[in-house]
Amino acid sequence: ILLALGLKFSPYIKRFSLVLFPLSLRFGLGAIVGLLFIQIAGLEGLDASIAFFASVAPIGMNTMTFADMEKLDTEFAASIVSVAIFLAMLLAPLSLHIASGL
């Protein structure tokens, strides 16, 4: 899967404005839903941290696989995955700070 992503990767981001929508859903809405789940389930400590990190994890590589299998726009899927991984590296310290307070 990583090899397939590497073949589709290019520094050019296809339809940047459309890439922001799934990324905001994954990181923004994912964080909100994750925090709600932590509160509802009453998680604390390491359990809460793991649940929060899972809720803000970047979009997975299976996005590329599904896009290719269903004959969708694989370049767009590669753009989403590539930007998500880059943003996840930038947001990891913030996530760590938030999770330490849970």
Describe the structure in your own words.
This protein is about 75% helix and about 0% strand. The chain is built from five helices and no strands. Helix 2 runs antiparallel to helix 3. The longest helix is centred in the C-terminal third of the chain and has 27 residues, at about 75-100. It is elongated.
Briefly summarize what is shown.
With 102 residues, this protein is mostly helical. The chain is built from five helices and no strands.
Order of helices and strands: HHHHH
Distance between the termini: 34 Å
Shape: elongated
Beta percentage is: under 5%
What Rg, in angstroms, do the CA atoms define?
15 Å
Average predicted confidence as pLDDT: 83
Multimerization status: single chain
Q: Based on helices, strands and strand pairing, what is the structural class?
A: mainly alpha
Number of helices: 5
Extract low-pLDDT stretches: none
Strand count, sense and barrel status of the largest sheet are: none
Residues in helix, %: over 70%
Q: What's the total number of strands?
A: 0
